[in-house]
Structures are given as structure tokens and as C-alpha cells.
Amino acid sequence: MKEKLYAIPVNDAFIEDCECPICLMLKTLEANAIEFTMGPSYMEDDIRAVTDEVGFCKHHLKGLMENQNRLGLALILKTHMDKTIHDLELLSPDKVKAPASLFKKKQESSTVVSYIKKLESSCFICNKINATFERYIATIFSLYQNDDSFRKKFSTSKGFCTSHYGLLYEEAGKYLNGKLSEQFIKELNDLYFHNMKRVKDDLEWFIDKFDYRNTNEPWKNSKDALPRAMVKTNSLF
User: Fold this and answer.
1) What are the residue ranges of helices labelled H in 162-210?
2) Given its phi and psi angles, is residue 159 left (phi above 0), alpha (psi -120 to 50 degrees) or beta?
């Protein structure tokens, strides 16, 4: 039943007219995670305990701010700051009462730095997204292996951004075997390179249109070439 539930958003993404269905899945997951975080859940003790512990990355903190629930975000950050202050006060060398050796001071300093680095590399929303995203990737391979209709959607898609092309290339051997794995990689390569070149050609014509000699020439498919190129190169949806 779970696999069927995961198959719905995967199938939905692959029928969309987009340059990378995996980027689209991530965008949807991100929007849902931000909505969840800023919804009634932020008042639940178990959720707040986690956000207090792990905090948010810079990218998703900006997304939370754009959600417009400023009171909710203020409450979340206030208790997160309470915990950070409490933990770092306990770890800080300045709180050591007895004189410490140079070695001990270095240890204490290292503990503080380790805490901060761990905090900077953690994010409640990233964690929430990644748990589901891993299942989406597994579902792509499961559907490719067992669902002819999905395989057709895959083969007629507009390919993937470079990052997600690499992800599928890397994971293929984990989920597919023998000839099916070879077939997948060949199809993946064809999709990626054909569509990268298509967008690159559109981008090239977009550039050429700024030449006065092409003023009266049609735009063809190049008007939105720049944002589509940003998706293909940097997963910026």
C-alpha cells in the first residue's frame, strides 16, 4: 500500500511538462514540509523538541519567513535559541571554574566547535524532505521495472537536471540488474543529453535574439530558455 502511495506523486511529476520531474517532486516536498512546519504542528511538544534540537538551514529558514506566519516562526526560533544558548553555556570553556590545562582548553573549544558545526549541518525541513525523497527514488526504479505505462512516461519526459541525472545513474545498479539496468542507463543517457542539447540550443537562440540582425526573427522556443537552463544546470526550479 505504501508503494502505491509513493507512486502517485512520482507518476504525477512525470506527466508534468517540466525540465526535471525529480526537481518538481523536491519542490512539492519542500512546499509541503514548510506548510507542515508553520501549521498547527509547531505548537506540538514533540515537533518543537526536534526543531529546537536541529534548527534549520539558511535556505529553508528563508522559506519559513516567506510563509508569512511570523508569530509561529518567532516562537519556533525563540525556543531553538533557548536550547542553543543552554547547550553552549554548558560546553563553553568560560564556564569551567577550575584552572584548565592547555590540552583541556583545546578539548573544550573543540566540543563547542563540533556542536556548532553539527547544528549548521542539520535542518528539520531537510530531514523531513529526505526521508520521503529516498522513497520516491526507489519508487522510480520500481515503476520502471514493473509498470509499462510508467516506462513510457519516463521515456517521453524532458529529461533531468545534471544533479538528478547523476543520482539516477548512481542508483540504477542498486535497484536494477542485468539487461534492465543497461537499458535504463542507455535510456537515461539519451534523455539527458538530448534534452540538455535542446535547452542549450534554445538558450543559444535566446542570446542570438539580442543581436540587432535578429530583431525581426521569431523567438521560437527561447523566451523561457534562461529559467529552463537554470533548472538543467543547477536544479533551480
Assistant:
1) 162-175, 178-208
2) left
CB 36 within 8 A of CB 44: no
Answer whether 19's CB lies under 8 Å from 231's CB: yes
Q: Distance between CA atoms of 147 and 231, rounded to whole angstroms?
A: 27
| Residue 26, CB-side half-sphere exposure with 13 Å CA sphere | 19
Q: What is the pLDDT of residues 5-43, one digit of tens each?
A: 899 999 999 999 999 999 999 999 999 999 999 999 889
Distance CA 17, CA 55 (A): 35
Q: Which residue has the cell 523538541?
A: 49
Q: Which of 34, 17, 25 is nearest to 139 (CA)?
A: 25
- Helix, strand, coil shares of the chain, percent, nearest 5, are 80, 0, 20
CA 56, 167, 204 angle in degrees (round to 5)? 95
Q: How far apart are CA 194 and CA 39, in angstroms?
A: 42
Per the listing, cell 553552549 goes with 88
pLDDT at 97 over 90: no
Q: Cα(66)–Cα(166) distance, rounded to whole angstroms?
A: 31
